[in-house]
Amino acid sequence: MQCEMNVGEVGAVVLAAGLSTRMGQPKMVLPWGKVTIIEKVVTTLREAGIEKIVVITGGAHQEVLKALNGYYVTIIFNPQYHNGEMLNSLQAGLRALPPDVRGALIVLGDQPFIQKETIETVVRAFLETSSQLVIPSFQMRRGHPWLIARQLWQEVLEIKPPETLRSFLQANHEKITYVVVDTPTIIWDIDTPEDYEKRKPRN
Fold this sequence. Notes:
This protein is of the alpha/beta class.
């Protein structure tokens, strides 16, 4: 990977604080091959060279804590997880990243099919340009993980409802660099038992 020497400037916030209401059980700790969903997400980030990882937990805090025992990650409990919004989880994650991080990947904890190559593509675009926002796109649909430069973190930290991350991105649309990827995995997630059965590994 061309930007390996600088990849340490990028950290990740993994959003794993949801209630898993539609799944009916904590989806972050469902099996995914030989590991759990949340373990697979963290492992793929590591494979892409991301070492500074903050995982935000909520409804399944103890289960995620147990699953990630032995993984070198920072785990933050979001006491406001019950409101179902990603915003305060992201805010907690940005605050927890170390000061030498100048770009944060925003990662969904229920995207175990996230690909190392996608992460590398987004990080490379950030490191090789002056972009403050980098978002992957598949067939004109944007997905995760996307990346936000430290210059914009304060703006995110100051967002208050009814403003949302969507409105933040709309307000900063001219700062976005889109990177086109050839995989729909950036727009997949796991919300329901049907999603899980459809996507889970078969081996």
